[in-house]
Amino acid sequence: TEEFIKRRLDIVAAELDGTEEQMAQFKRSSGLTNVTGDAQRILTGSTEYEKQSVEIATQLNLLSYLREYVNNPENELMAIPANVGLSDASLSSGIVKYNEGVIERNRMLRSVNESHPTIIDLTTDLKSMANTIKLSIEAAYDALEIKQKDIERQSVKFTSKLGDAPSQEKVIEGYKRQQE
Q: How far apart are alpha carbons 15 and 128 in whole angstroms?
């Protein structure tokens, strides 16, 4: 009886070792440490990427609005909407500086005409600043589009990993049943 029990324990121990090794190999090949914890981290990462994607889409919409505004000939030498929520600090400060120049020009036009040398110089400076702002808007827009594409790629990776979690959990549970 003792010999039978010993052989049986050796067989069960070998099967248990085999099952544990299969589970460990599956976790290594799937890049898992803790299926539930990994799924939670993936879900958190996916949510963060979605949040960033929404923020970037908002910034792109704001820049698109500003692009249309500054490229409209009717708005030439007019104040550009500021404090609209742009995340690009240098663009925002350039708009504020431009708007200050527009206010100064309009104030001066109350007492002198447009052919006054100071007005001519200020108008030239404002047109130059407007061109710089247009270039800054384009550069910021392009940078955000690149960032959005990168975030979309990362989000697809997280979504794919999250979709794999249930099947991975099933495989792990099968190994656990074998162990039990």
A: 79
What percentage of the chain carries pLDDT values higher than 70?
A: 77
Cα separation values, 121 from 16, 97, 117, 125, 132, Å: 86, 16, 6, 6, 17
Residue 92, token pair as written in the block: 């925002």
Cα of first residue to Cα of last residue in the chain, in angstroms, is 24
Query: The whole model's pTM is what?
Result: 0.65
C-alpha–C-alpha distance, residues 8 and 156, integer Å: 49
Half-sphere exposure of 147 (CA within 13 A, CB side): 16
Backbone angles phi, psi at 167, to 5 degrees: -70, -35
With bands split at pLDDT 50, 70 and 90, how would you rate the model's confidence at 175? low
Interatomic CA distance for residues 49 and 42, integer angstroms: 10
Write out pLDDT tens, residues 83-126: 788 888 899 999 999 999 999 999 999 999 989 999 999 999 99
